[in-house]
Amino acid sequence: MATVRIENATIWTGSPLPGGAIAVTDSVLFEGGRILALGATAKRLVADEVIDAVGGFVCLGFGDGHVHPLFGGLEPQFAPVRDRASAQEIAEVVGRWAQEHPTAEWIRGEGFDHTLAPNGVFMAAWLDAVVPDRPVVLRATDYHTVWVNSEALRRAGYQRGLVQPHDGEIVLDEFGDPTGTLREWGAWRPVYALVPEVDLKTRMIAIAQANECFVSAGLTWIQDAWVEATDVDTWIEADRSGLVTCRVAMALWADPNSWRDQVEQFVTARTKVDAAGSPRLVANTIKFFADGVIESATGALLEPYCDCPHSKGLPNWQPDELKSAVAAIDALGFQTHIHAIGDGAARMALDAIEHASVINGARDRRPVIAHTQLVADADLGRFAELGVIANFEPYWAKFDSWQTELTEPRLGAERTNRQFMIGTILRSGAPISFGSDWPVTTYAPLAGIQVAVTRKMTATGPTWMPQECLTVEEALLAYTSGVAFQAGDSAGVIRPGARADLVWLAADPRTVDPMQIENIAVLGTWADGRRVW
């Protein structure tokens, strides 16, 4: 492999100096996927290729600690329901797509705005008006809420007098009839079980689409945070076909209803991925959904919802069962990755990780709690005490329509202003990492950094919870060395011998207007020393 030098740059190494600043130099030399030298030494050595960065900014390649590549890549293959302004407009595009695809047995769409109906309840009749004869299934941007038409309800056997699942909600109207809105696994998985499986060719298109998005944004490592059995083979085939250039860590999904039967499958999947021999793929993580989301009142809270005083949400696991499951997979050397939105779910997740640590003894396990949206004061210090990585999706940390339309009415003012306490948890000494949860929100790390730093919707708007704002360098660290730590990397910085995962930006995010960080161009991405963008 050629020896490459990038010079005339601000090389932000990620290595802290004694005073707290991050070490910076002006050039980096790499070969064979590894950093050879920095600074003056890099400039003295011979390079096969020299890149003049024209004063740009180079840092470690970004990582995404929680993302859904297949979902994001598949969205364009279905009805284009994202970014529509009303439920009526969504129905209209679904109707047009159905007319254009007369042979499609099911009409699918992913990513509609779940704030567009009162209380997030969408009616089957609105879809029946445009597609009465074929089943329609649409998933909202939160990926926890699904909207279906009457034909889909009929095929799933959902009718008046149904028994609610323990791990979901089939929303009913005043007469006890299903409305067409399904919340959480138990409600919508029986519907998706009827949908024909997406063919391999389409899945390959999705992986290629996702990979292009990632490398164009400077990402070199991602945590696929929801991998089911068929997805393992999808990733292996995509990698063999040359469609994967960033490194991918698969998080195998644990079903609360059948996790004991899955344990052997998890070990088999890990072995299969290892046997494939790709330096880009691993399957060492198990994903748990402790709860749902606050917007649908399925996030698990310690105290009841304001608009539903008899409910504390919908945990997907019983606490003791989650403890047993986490301890079991931890004993097999898997990394734990737990989705926890509500403060009740965060406590349950922390308790399960603590239990596994006691039962299985000390090791470098690096467990992750993802989203970390609401955490009780009594639990804030436990992340550092237990060595739990708090994974945040920083793009969420702004007061947007999700907050005004759905979240604040359900949490009330006090809990609303305790969300996404990134600064507080960082200052507690806990490790943090950043991610996107794409396609829930944008995959672009620079957009996430901008919100983490400003917590603003607009330049002239208010800063939401200013005490939780990070510095640009703190946000950069969360997207680089923070995610590298989650990935098990021993370096996470640019130094001789480290992996040559690099991103070249047109401007230094530390010096531009903070509200312009997301507009900085990504000029180059290198994964394992190979230029992929």
The CATH architecture designation of the largest domain is: Alpha-Beta Barrel
Helix content: 25-40%
Q: Might you state the CATH topology name of the largest domain? A: TIM Barrel
- CATH hierarchy, class of the largest domain: Alpha Beta
In short:
By secondary structure, the chain is an alpha/beta fold. The protein is built from 17 helices and 23 strands. It has two domains: 64-69 and 199-527, Metal-dependent hydrolases (TIM Barrel); 106-192, Diaminopimelate Epimerase, Chain A, domain 1, CATH 3.10.310.
Protein described:
Helix 7 crosses helix 8 and helix 10 (319-331) crosses helix 11. The protein has 17 helices and 23 strands. The protein is of the alpha/beta class and 533 residues long. The two termini are 17 Å apart. 33% of the residues lie in helices and 22% in strands. The model has no long low-confidence stretch (mean pLDDT 97). The strands form four sheets. It has an eight-stranded parallel beta sheet. The chain has a six-stranded mixed beta sheet with strand order 3-2-7-21-22-23, with helices on one face. A five-stranded mixed beta sheet has the order 9-10-11-13-12, with helices on both faces. The protein has helices at residues 39-44, 69-74, 87-100, 124-128, 150-156, 185-192, 200-216, 229-240, 259-276, 319-331, 343-360, 382-386, 401-416, 422-427, 445-454, 472-479, 481-486; strands at 4-7, 10-16, 22-25, 28-31, 34-38, 49-52, 57-60, 62-67, 107-112, 136-140, 145-148, 169-172, 178-183, 219-227, 247-253, 281-289, 335-340, 368-371, 389-392, 432-434, 502-505, 522-527, 530-531. It folds into two domains: 64-69 and 199-527, Metal-dependent hydrolases (TIM Barrel, Alpha-Beta Barrel); 106-192, Diaminopimelate Epimerase, Chain A, domain 1.
